[in-house]
Design goal:
Layout: H1 2-12, E1 17-21, E2 24-31, E3 37-41, H2 54-60, E4 64-68, H3 85-98, E5 104-109, H4 112-122, E6 127-133, H5 144-153, H6 159-169, H7 179-189, H8 194-202, H9 206-209, E7 218-224, H10 233-244, E8 247-251, H11 258-261, H12 263-276
Parallel strand pairs: 3-4, 3-5, 5-6, 6-7, 7-8
Antiparallel strand pairs: 1-2, 2-4
Helix pairs in contact: 1-2, 3-4
Length: 282
């Protein structure tokens, strides 16, 4: 309950800063004034408060936590020309440069894991660690009927409620105590922005997949054993970890957001992984 109380207090006290990009602005907030940067990016259709339970553990471990909204979502503007994973990776690079990061960790969930890969490959001397949660980092085979279903499900006047129903299914074992309020706020944030969600869903991961072999950072793949986004979550976690010479943390019973669904099982091993390879510096 202490973790929940801290998480809710942090979420209530958020203040967004803006990173200027060539065709829009990306919202972020910084928690803490000292320590190595831990840059956290949510998945498609979600916002930076997704990390409201993991962030307190990172701050307590001495990290300067930076929570970013994806371009087009949350408090970011929604007039970008591209919503691809590599474009979001460029936002990560720009944000780390703006903050003067000398050493940093990037934590990415779902599609933003591909962006974390892209940024780590672009900044090998800065990005020391990446944590990939429920990661989509490669082109995944999708049957034609699945593509057709996606095109129908999340377009039109029913798109937002359909997305939120799908979002709820990604917490298969249990939902946070604040899930009702969080989901309501998430729904409000998606008003008029489902086109961004669709653009991200259809964006290719090829540019990020091509960077997998260029990543020099330490890697931890975090996967819920019941993540419905993968036919076999354990196999996908092992495949990604093997490509990146990383380790795997399987969270038994969790879905696509183990750090929010089961923070007490997820945060301690993530912190332990980061501290094991800690690097001095900002």
């Amino acid at each position: 309950m202490l973790t929940l109380a801290i998480g809710l207090a942090m979420a209530a006290a958020t203040h967004a800063e803006m990173l200027d990009r060539p065709d829009g602005r990306v919202a972020y907030e910084v928690i803490g004034s000292r320590g190595q940067i831990a840059l956290c990016a949510p998945g498609i259709g979600d916002v930076r408060a997704q990390y409201r339970f993991l962030a307190p553990a990172l701050v307590a471990a001495g990290y300067r936590v930076v929570l970013m909204d994806l371009r087009g979502l949350g408090d970011s503007t929604a007039d970008f020309a591209s919503y691809s994973a590599d474009a979001i990776g460029e936002d990560m690079v720009a944000l780390l440069n703006t903050l003067g990061a000398e050493h940093a960790t990037i934590i990415g969930n779902s599609a933003s894991a591909a962006s974390a890969v892209w940024a780590a490959a672009a900044m090998p001397d800065v990005v020391s660690n990446i944590v990939l949660i429920g990661p989509f980092v490669r082109e995944m085979p999708t049957a034609w009927y699945q593509r057709a279903m996606l095109n129908v499900a999340f377009r039109g006047f029913w798109a937002r409620p359909a997305w939120l129903a799908y979002y709820s299914s990604l917490y298969p074992t249990g939902k946070p105590d604040d899930f009702g309020a969080y989901k309501a706020a998430l729904s409000a944030s998606l008003d008029g922005r489902m086109r961004v969600v669709n653009a991200m869903l259809s964006a290719s991961k090829a540019a990020s997949e091509a960077k997998l072999d260029d990543v020099k950072a330490r890697v931890l793949v975090v996967m819920g054993s019941r993540d419905p986004d993968f036919a076999n979550p354990a196999d996908e976690a092992l495949l990604v970890a093997k490509r990146l010479n990383g380790g795997v943390l399987m969270v038994d019973g969790a879905g696509h957001y183990p750090h929010a669904e089961m923070p007490d099982k997820t945060a301690p091993p993530i912190v332990a992984f980061l501290q094991h390879g800690a690097t001095d510096g900002r």
